[in-house]
Amino acid sequence: MSRASLLLSLAALVAVLALASLLIGPAGAGPVASLKALWAGEGPLGIVLREIRAPRAVLGVMLGVSLGLSGAALQGYLRNPLAEPGLIGISAAAALGAVIAIQAGVSTLGLGVPAAGLAGALGGVGLILLLAGRGGSGLGLILGGIAVSALAGALTALVLNLSPNPFAAYDIMFWTMGSLADRSWGHVLTALPLMGLGWAVLLWAGRDLDALSLGEEAAASMGVDLAALQLKVVLGAAAAVGAATAVAGAVGFVGLVVPHLLRGAVGAMPSRLLPAAALGGAALVLTADIAVRLIMPERDLKLGVMMALVGAPVFLHLIWRTQVGK
């Protein structure tokens, strides 16, 4: 299959899954009636489709694009198929900001929690760049990300441990599991500008990542500014993943699984993998979100839990294959 055919197929799959996300749910009245209600926007079903399911589907696409694209870019920059967005600590920093907001009494249904999550992500990426150093090695970036992730995780646990409010602790626990439920158009509009900026920056870095795949010295001889490339990848991933975590909670493994699944179809060149991983991420998140509504609709199974159940075995398989291949 050619690259163009693959991208068209993935785009069509995303469209079908987004439509399925709109039509699946307890308030459904059949596909035809649901589509009519969606078009007219009238009655209880029309309100459910336009104000609850539509933003959830759109946010699912945005979340998948952010995580898949960021994972492919980080794997290309670090030249490590085991790299993923959570590795550089942005998700943990965004989660910490949101957790502090919840503990302070901010409702998880409003936009205060996403705003605090974005602030946490920006603070985290600043600390990561400070630790890694401008133009530092990939190892410095990984170590800085691990340090920030560990610190943010410890502070999140501390907030939970010291929380005098059991309801806030309950909200924190379930928010950190990641979910697209109860999201509104306000969440979409809050995240979209920063996500869009992150997507543009990461796609812009594609050609430089191609050169870096030949090695740092070869890339530098081809005119690639390695310090600028590091900034592009880190800031692009921080913008996309930070905004995604701020509005949807912690959803892992998408950035690890999707590039691994698609690399064989598009080749190892990062510039070819980036758009495919973006569409593949959207398809995977939409599929998982539909699954959580079908498997245990009465128990509110969380999206982050579903992705962990899928991603952890893939991660173990990658580690096993890496070790056996030595």
UniProtKB/TrEMBL annotation:
GO BP of this protein: siderophore-iron import into cell
Record-linked Pfam families: FecCD (PF01032)
Nucleus as UniProt keyword: no
Top-level division of the source organism's lineage: Bacteria
Membrane-spanning parts: 53-74, 86-106, 112-132, 139-164, 184-205, 233-261, 273-296, 303-320
InterPro entries xrefs: ABC_BtuC-like (IPR037294), ABC_transptr_permease_BtuC (IPR000522)
Main location: membrane
Keyword Metal-binding: no
Recorded topology in the membrane: Multi-pass membrane protein
Any one Gene Ontology cellular component term annotated for this protein: plasma membrane
Keywords, comma-separated and alphabetical: Cell membrane, Membrane, Transmembrane, Transmembrane helix, Transport
Location(s), subcellular: Cell membrane
An MF annotation (GO) of this entry: transmembrane transporter activity
SUPFAM superfamilies given in the database record: ABC transporter involved in vitamin B12 uptake, BtuC (SSF81345)
Family in the record: Belongs to the binding-protein-dependent transport system permease family. FecCD subfamily.
Protein name per Swiss-Prot or TrEMBL: Iron ABC transporter permease
Native species: Paracoccus solventivorans
